[in-house]
Amino acid sequence: MSVMTINIERNSGLFHLISRNGLGHEVVTDADPGIGGTNKGARPTELVIMGLGTCSAIDVVLILQKQRQSLNDIKIEIKAVKEKIETYSEFREIHMHFHLWGQIKANKAKQAIDLSIDKYCTVAQLLKKTASITTEFTIHDTSKNG
Amino acid sequence: MSVMTINIERNSGLFHLISRNGLGHEVVTDADPGIGGTNKGARPTELVIMGLGTCSAIDVVLILQKQRQSLNDIKIEIKAVKEKIETYSEFREIHMHFHLWGQIKANKAKQAIDLSIDKYCTVAQLLKKTASITTEFTIHDTSKNG
């Protein structure tokens, strides 16, 4: 068991909020101007998808490290589809495109990404309760530029 | 159906990442120094709890507005307990303490918070797949200072 503490304060307007973790790291959110927001930060549900991508990025970096693959850089593009269910929404389809720079074998990249989404990433296991998560990857072999 | 786009890039070190939504709003994350992180941002799973709190804050503000309650400020303190399940973790217990400033009737505050957690907040409905969410609230009546 581990305990997490989050404190949320209003910064301005109706919905411009600052969330802080126990170490004081800040995340800024706001609501859509359509409901009275001032568009000064990400939307709350976007934080969940950012949590998915960053959690999975950590897994992939760690697993490729253990597999002695030389990873120089990583980017992830995510598209997430939400469906309105009466009063709230559910994530339905999430697609993650991993871009990996370095000398990395394709089968090792696939294994690292699959392990993250199937077993290690806490946010992925949560989102899979309502959504299907699909992945693809592109290896940008930077050895050619060396 | 609505589509969300998130792009994640590495900023420094192994795990210091910047996530951007479609409008360019940035959220900074990093991993724990224990696994090689540099502690420059929130942890990925913390973003999910920040998503819960900020999503619920928006609901509560909107519902109190409809109920013609005068809300001057809002803060939320959240404690979330995660349990390790073999390779990943699941949220188990989440407690949210809402602080509301203004001239607000207690029954209206309770109703707004309950409606958010039971029906409106998308992130709450997701987290309830594995966690129980409990709430309490404190009304700080600022009319006395007027």
Largest sheet entry of chain A: 3 strands, antiparallel
User: What name does the CATH topology of the largest domain in chain A carry?
Assistant: GMP Synthetase, Chain A, domain 3
In helices, the fraction of residues of chain A equals 25-40%
By DSSP (H or I, 4+ residues per run), the number of helices of chain A equals 3
Q: Biggest interface in this structure?
A: A-B, 76 and 76 residues
Oligomer: homodimer
Could you report the average pLDDT of chain A, rounded to the nearest whole number?
96
Which outline of chain A best applies? globular
Q: Supply the CATH class of the largest domain in chain A.
A: Alpha Beta
Q: What's the total count of β strands of chain A?
A: 6
Q: Trace the largest sheet of chain A across and list its strands.
A: 1-2-3
Low-pLDDT residue spans of chain A: none
Would you list the SSEs of chain A in sequence order as H and E?
Answer: EEEHEEHHE
Q: Which structural class matches the secondary elements of chain A?
A: alpha+beta
The CATH homologous superfamily name of the largest domain in chain A equals: K homology (KH) domain
Integer tally of domains of chain A: 2
Percent strand of chain A equals 35-45%
Radius of gyration of chain A: 18 Å
Q: Supply the CATH architecture of the largest domain in chain A.
A: 2-Layer Sandwich
N-C termini distance of chain A: 46 Å
